[in-house]
Design goal:
This protein has 102 residues and is mainly β. The chain has one helix and six strands; from the N terminus they run ββββαββ.
Amino acid sequence: SGLRLGREFLDPHSGRRFKAWQSVSNDIQNQRQTIQWVLQDLSESGEVAVTNHLSLSLRWIYQAEFESLLRAAGYSQWTVYGGFNGEPLEGEGQEMVWIASA
C-alpha cells in the first residue's frame, strides 16, 4: 500500500516539526508484515529539510504454533498474557507475552 501520513509532531527539545509517513504491507501466507516509514524533518518555513527512511519486518506467530514450539524445545509449563502488565489474552491487537519454564 502507499504512504499515508501517520502523524505530525513537534520535537520538544529542538522545536523542529516532523512528518511521519507510513506504509504497511501484509504477507498472510508467510505470516509477515513489513512497515516502511519516511520521516521528514521540516524547516521553519515548512519545507522538507531532511528525509530518513526506516523499515521494519515482523513475523506473526499464532498461539497454537508458539505452544508447539515450546513443547518441541522441552518446555512443559507456560503462561501467556495479553500484555506486559499481565492482562488476559482476549483478542487481536494485543501483545502475546509468554513466561515459560522447563
